[in-house]
Design goal:
332 residues; alpha/beta; 10-stranded mixed β-sheet
Length: 332
């Protein structure tokens, strides 16, 4: 005689089958959200940026928005800084998780074996910074050598601008303390000081165009001073290989350049983290940096130059393992 299972057992079996189906569906959903099958990163990270009106800060704001879309379980806190040198110190001490710094600032940090230098790792080569030596349009300054005796904004002490300005001035023969009057100030204050006649010139190193320089040129007559190619040779001979000759396009600051290109010095920016950073988080962070290039580039022009083909070259830093995973995953 055929035995019919009790109704309670049939219901139980159906419940177990439904639970199994749900588990499969959830598993597939996790796999779809995380292509390698690993859970999406979560937690809080600190991103050290730069001065409020600089390109680092604006890039950080837009990258935070992109990360919010791609990594909803990760909370990103932005933290202002003086620039590259302070950014690296924060990263090495654990006060930040990711940052941007120029390749020359990174090389200096490593060469001087500063605290935590061996823990620094690269995620991506981003865009180049262009040195901009800005003077009033009627200034007699036509080259870096003409800055002798002038009041010159050289960036804040913890910035990459200060590092580069000091080296360029030394290359121009203005290394001595009596050669000029250096003023420690950032891009958030130097344009106003120049406009007020409290500076004769200032150095800035950033992506093109930098909003603060653009706004200054629109309201006050300024021009950019050419930096000769032989300054690059001097930098290379004294052990600084990360600088290259470059040209500021004539349309970067139309009011300041009159459509004419200006020779200058450029240096790469790197996205940097530490060896302790979670590999899955670093992989996802790097993916968003590359994937958000066009969206961010629509508002920060220099970000358009982020290129997957060159992003992997983070010299002088080795790649973080998470970043390496990302580049391997998109390798053609």
């Amino acid at each position: 005689m055929l035995q019919v299972p009790p109704l309670s057992l049939l219901r139980r079996a159906r419940t177990l089958r439904a639970a199994a189906v749900l588990a499969v569906v959830l598993g597939l959903l996790v796999w779809w959200l995380a292509p390698d099958g690993r859970p999406e990163p979560r937690g809080r990270v600190v991103f050290s940026t730069g001065v409020p009106t600089g390109v680092y800060q604006r890039y950080g704001e837009l990258l935070k928005e992109a990360l919010g879309r791609d990594l909803p379980e990760v909370s990103v806190a932005l933290r202002d800084s003086e620039g590259s040198q302070q950014n690296l110190a924060r990263l090495a001490s654990g006060d930040a998780d990711f940052t941007i710094a120029t390749a020359d600032a990174v090389a200096t940090y490593l060469r001087e074996d500063r605290p935590g230098a061996d823990r620094l790792r690269g995620c991506a080569r981003l865009y180049d910074d262009y040195v901009q030596l800005v003077v009033p349009r009627d200034s007699p300054v036509r080259s870096a050598r003409d800055l002798r005796g002038k009041r010159v904004g050289v960036g804040q002490d913890g910035s990459g601008v200060r590092l580069l300005a000091d080296r360029l001035l030394a290359g121009a023969g203005l290394e001595g303390a009596d050669e000029l009057i250096p003023v420690s100030a950032g891009i958030d204050t130097m344009p106003e000081l120049l406009e007020q006649g409290r500076l004769d010139a200032f150095f800035w190193s950033g992506g093109l165009p930098t909003t603060a320089v653009q706004q200054l040129s629109d309201r006050f007559p300024v021009r950019l001073v050419p930096l000769e190619e032989k300054l690059i040779g001097g930098l290379h001979r004294t052990g600084y290989p990360h600088y290259r000759s470059a040209v500021i396009p004539g349309d970067a600051y139309p009011a300041a350049q009159g459509g004419k290109p200006v020779p200058t010095v450029a240096v790469a920016n790197l996205l940097v983290t530490s060896e302790d950073a979670d590999a899955a988080l670093t992989e996802a962070f790097t993916r968003t940096v590359i994937g958000s290039r066009d969206r961010i580039g629509g508002k920060v022009h220099s970000a358009q130059l982020v290129d997957l083909r060159t992003a992997i070259y983070t010299d002088p830093l080795p790649l973080h393992e998470g970043a390496r995973r990302y580049y391997h995953s998109v390798k053609p």
